[in-house]
Structure formats: C-alpha cells, structure tokens
Specification:
This protein is of the alpha/beta class. The chain has one domain (3-349): Alpha-Beta Barrel (TIM Barrel), CATH 3.20.20. The chain has helices at residues 3-10, 14-22, 38-48, 57-62, 69-80, 86-102, 114-118, 124-142, 158-168, 193-201, 216-226, 241-249, 258-263, 275-280, 292-295, 299-310, 314-326, 332-349; strands spanning 25-31, 105-112, 145-153, 177-181, 205-210, 230-233, 254-256, 285-287. It has an 8-stranded parallel sheet with strand order 1-2-3-4-5-6-7-8. It is globular, with a radius of gyration of 20 Å. The structure holds zinc ion. Zinc ion binds at residues 29, 31, 181, 209, 232, 290.
C-alpha cells in the first residue's frame, strides 16, 4: 500500500467530521472555571485590578504544559483568581454556552467549585447568582438546557465541604447535585462520606471524580460510600473486571474526557486511550471536555480527535450521543425528546436523496 493511500485511510473523513460537529449531544463533565480562556482571564484581571504572574496571554497559554493533575491545578487556581464579581461568573459561563451552542450541545451539566472562590473572600451568592443567570439566558436565547453541580475540593477537609454545603442550602433550587473534584490521589471518597450523606438527604444528585489517576478502589468507594450515580472519568475501571461487570450491570455512566487524559498524561497518546474498549465492554461511556480552555479543545474537538485516533465509526457516534443523553440528569420526558432529536438527525443525514 502506498503512503498516500495509508494517509487517506487514517484521516477522519470530512463527512464524518461534519456529522460529528452537527450531532446533537449532551456535555456532562465540564468545570466551568476550566472554560476560562487566557484572553478572558486577562480581561477580567484588568477590569478587577488583579495582577497575574504571567506577562501576557501568550505567556499564560505557554504555561499550559502539564505533567500531571497537580501541575494543572496550580495554574487552574491562579486563573480562577481573577473571578470576583457576579458579572465575572456570568461572563465566564456565557462564553462557555456560546462555544457549546457552536458544538451543538443541547444539554449541559456544569461543575462549579465554590470553595475556589469563597476561600478568596468571594461570597457564595456572587458565584451562584452569576452562573445561574447565564444558565437561564442560555435556555432562553440559545436553546441549551443547563444545570449546575456543586463540586467539593477533595484536597480540602470534609469539614470545609460540610461548611460549603451549609452555605449552599439557601440556593438549593439553583443547583441539582454535588460532585467531588481536584487532586484525586491520597483523597479517597471515604473522606467525604458524611457530606455526601447529607447531600443525599437533601435530595441532590450525586456524582464523583474517581479512577482518573486513582485506583479502581476509588470507584468502588464513590459508588458504595458516596452513592455516586455517575462516575467522572472512571477510565481506570478496566483494571478491575468485577468493577466493570458492576458498572455494566447497573448502567453507571462514565464521563470520559479524552483530551484531558492526554494532557495530564493518564494515557501516553490518544491512540492508546481505552474509550473504544470501554464502549466494547458495554459501559455507558460519554465524551466530554473537562477543562476545555486548558486541555486543547471543547467537546467537538474531543470527538474529532478521539474518532481519528481510535478510528471510531458512525455506530460509535450514535452510542456516544445516546449515552450522553441517557446519562444526563434530565427528566424522562426530556431524555425522550433528546433521543428523538438524535434519531431525526441520523435519519435526515442518511435519507436517500
Ligand atoms: Zn473533571
């Protein structure tokens, strides 16, 4: 086979790429603070009089060469330091929603990290009111159904998480669930048993990051101790056949973030990512962007690069989009409508001319 032919075969076809871009989808693993682009960070720093340890947008972007989760988190928290007012939180979320619409995201569940802000003296109300306003406007003006999930920072103590949940109680109608993020290793789910029990008592939905860098035991813990209904990342699950069997049997979704996994060196290359195997094993895996401003792309970029690297096809596209809707916390009727919309998209694209 000539080199030219080989090259053509390895390229994602334009038709499939366009199809993936236009496909209706849900995004279930996006940290809104991780959507803050360097340009917006500098704009906010200027209007809020915050000085940054980077001379320019380019210098900041150049610092996005991470070796693991912690090296990313250090820059992530520096970037978030420019967020001070309700307008800042609104602007950040609105910029994400514009990107999401361009990628044909019709349902989005956004993580936010209140402790990153309250520990800097920014009131909880400022954070949630700014984000909530963007959620409302996205529904009205962009046709995106969105909701918020409050994440506890797992490198902090459970008492701090409990205090955050207490602060959040007056705003309980403005977020639908709680999650657990930040540095995973050394911070197992068991550390947060009490705060998640309280969240469940309040009727909140439960998710948790587990099995990104951490072992399968952290996924078991997220399920059994925290009551997680969905696992964020979960790519380490394949190391434990009994766990895989349970995740499949109980239809527990995994919100996988391929480009993030490469940037943070969870897999050496995208071609070595286990997404295809997760799908082949019958797991409810989805594609998401995690922290798109830092990890090299929004959700469609994740789809395109992963499809190319793993040579995925239309069948995978359908499974992944279906999984994204099924795994969401939308109501049963909303999920039905989303799935019908997906079927219509496939039918319309492949209708005989
Ligand atoms: Zn994440």
């Amino acid at each position: 086979m000539s080199e030219a032919v080989q090259h053509t075969e390895l390229m994602l076809s334009d038709r499939l790429a366009d199809f993936l871009r236009g496909m209706p989808k849900a995004e279930l693993h996006i940290h809104i603070e991780g959507s803050l682009e360097p340009e917006l960070i500098f704009q906010m720093a200027q209007r809020n009089g915050v000085s940054l340890p980077y001379a320019s947008v380019e210098a900041l972007r150049a610092a996005y060469a991470f070796t693991n989760l912690q090296s990313f988190l250090d820059i992530y928290y520096a970037g978030a330091s420019v967020l001070l007012t309700e307008v800042d939180f609104f602007d950040m979320a609105w910029a994400y929603f514009l990107r999401a619409r361009a990628d044909n995201v019709i349902h989005a569940e956004l993580f936010f990290d209140p402790q990153t802000h309250t520990m800097r003296g920014v009131p909880f109300a400022v954070v949630i009111n700014g984000l909530h306003r963007a959620v409302e406007r996205a529904r009205q003006e962009l046709g995106i159904r969105a909701s918020l999930i409050l994440c506890f920072l797992r490198h902090l103590s459970e008492d701090e998480a409990l205090a955050t949940l207490e602060e959040a109680k007056p705003y309980i109608g403005r977020f639908i669930g709680v999650g657990l993020d930040s540095g995973e290793l050394g911070n197992p789910p068991e550390k947060f048993a009490r705060v998640f029990a309280e969240a469940r008592r309040l009727g909140l939905r439960i998710v948790a990051h587990a099995g990104e860098e951490g072992p399968p035991a952290y996924i078991w813990g997220a399920l059994d101790v925290l009551g997680a209904e969905r696992i964020d990342h979960g790519v380490q699950a394949l190391k434990d056949p009994a766990l895989v069997e349970r995740l499949v049997r109980e239809h527990i979704p995994l919100t996988v973030c391929p480009l993030s996994n490469i940037k943070l060196c969870v897999f050496p290359t995208l071609a070595q990512h286990n997404l295809r195997e997760l799908l082949d094993r019958g797991l409810v895996a989805t594609i998401n962007s995690d922290d798109p401003a830092y990890f090299g792309g929004y959700i469609n970029q994740n789809y395109l690069e992963t499809f190319q690297a793993l040579q995925l096809n239309l069948g995978h596209a359908r499974r992944l989009a279906e999984n994204s809707f099924v795994a969401s916390f939308a109501s049963a009727e909303e999920k039905c409508r989303d799935l019908e919309r997906l079927v219509a998209y496939f039918d319309q694209t492949f209708a005989p001319a």
